[in-house]
Amino acid sequence: MKILNSMKIEIILIIRRIWFWAAMIVPCLIFGLILNDKLNMFDPGGALISSAYIVQAGIFLFLMLGFELVRREKNSNCDEVITAMPGAKSAKLWGKLISITLGIIVFTVLSFIILFVFYSVYQVPAYFRGVSVKYIILYWSIPFFIAASFGAYLGSFLNFRGIYVFLGFVWIALGPLNIGIFESISLLTQVDLMKVSEWLNLGQTDPHALYDSSYGLPLEGLRWIQKGWWVVVAIFVMSTRYLQLSKLKKAVYYSLAIMFLASSAFGLTSKFDVVRATAHEINSVMKYDYTYYSNYRPAKNSEQTTAFKVDSYDIHLKLKSQISADVQMKLIPSQDGNKIIFTLYHDLKVKKIIDGEGRFIKFSQDQDRLELEFPNRYKANHTLVLNMVYEGLSSPYFFANSQAVMLPSYFAWYPVPSTYPAMKAKEIQIVRYPSFPRYDVQYTLTIDGFKSIYTNLQAAGDSVWKGSSSAGISIFAGPISSHSVGGASIYSPISLYKMTNTFKTFLSELRNITNQIQEDLGLSAHELPQKLFFATIPPESRQYPANIWIMKDHAIIGINQQYNDGELLVSETALVPAVISALTRDINTINQREEMNTMFVEAYSYWYSKRFPSTQKYDIDRTPLLKLDLNYYEYNNMSRQKKAVQQILQYTDENWEENDKMKSFFREWYSHLKQPEQLDWEYIFSLVGSKEAD
Length: 694
Hints:
The chain is α+β, with helices and mostly antiparallel strands. It is 48% helix and 17% strand. It is built from 21 helices and 20 strands.
């Protein structure tokens, strides 16, 4: 009864505080404005991601609300009266906690109402209602409760002139704004404090992140555990001020609680790598792989070893916070030997390898290189059976956890016969080697952890897929919807619900462009595969669109949330360079200098645009990429590069209608580009010069 009466009094007092109404109204108004702006751009996920600063503001308002609740009692000396009454302190504690919780529930319900009204008006898919509820509870409701509890705790014993300045520091430390501050401190002290920043931050990990259509809203289990830990801390600190215990009981209570909280915080922080980082953390998408492969050095023993082919894979995957795999392989070596080399992403650590007779095989992992050494020499054309167990974290580019999966076949997430690394740092960017076997391999795939999995293999039972493929295995899971368009199966993120209207046009454009490029360059003619996966794969170039992979049995189309506009998907300015990059991508072209690849792709795209002018919205009045390069070289006084581009432009402008001559020009260029020898600007001058002479 005391708690109930205390709660009623607290509620009456709370609604009289200006901080309460500010906490209720201000975030809701801002949220409505953000929703209207983002949904006008067809970005429902971005509407929530962009609420990072609402969270920061809400933390401040509820921190001050909790502080003012307690300071009121201190300033009026009511706390002395309450202390003298039996059981009053604990009743006040629970009264405050319950009243704060009720206030946050009211705020949360108001947010849901605003959100669902906007979702209905803009016809956002029903999927977003469920995940939005989880998101608001995780990033709004729980943090606001924690902030109010800490405010009440600090108000119960702090009383000095600089108290509001101190509260300001607490406010910044507990919100998304702490990222920039801790990053600056880390740079000055040369001590990585980003883990501390992540653990203190009650809001989004990266307030500047764009919504990832394939990954969805960041709702990983560890984020819930982190917030739950802070709730326990909040209740603990509040109880220390209000529970009436003997000195001995207090000492025991404090010791046990602090030991538990400290040990659990340390344990959980060490596992925070499983949360996908998108900001400036060491393990983030922006930094991790680029830093690693920039420092990549070929293995000491990097010579080619005995050639072999994989006849079959039987892969059993468990996807929770990381990848756990049990892979059985049948290999057929073409020569006698005792060593075999695979490529496997370096953070996937092999636990053991056993042969078909149950013997443990000696192995070593050096970066992405996995070397097996057999106890006895094997014979050519004799089938070897291996069972390999490994686990670890996937690349930040290619997530694989309990929330979503994006493991394209060209990424070495399973052991593939290769001596090349999974990726290569190339000037200012990362590019990926096509790691999958280019010949038919029999695959069996079993996956635990997801109900809905999308792959290029055929379903063969519950959580089992089988099939023969010369393009490896691609796996996708998460917020994905499937569509059937003109006989093709298309899998795309649910958030791109407007983009689906342009699928038919896109397939037609993609087929036309693919056929034309194959004819122009004399490539083997292949039909467009009937399975297409739209996913947020990373681009293979920062200078021109290169976000498409076309393989024999499936294609992967790189997109982001901006594609929900629809028109961007069929933009030839983006499609042509992406398709030509996909059709000419191999080990040697990847190893060429980036500016050589760029010149070839952009020069061909320029010729294509002159023959087939686009009428798409995003292509009208667009400056060709090659001319943008010319402007760049001219601005930076790069006379040699500028001259080369000028010659290519002049040659194309003079000869673009002579198809045979231009085909010969680009075929010769491509024939040199795919050779191991490095091209340079001298080659460009000689190529244009020889063709002009002809």
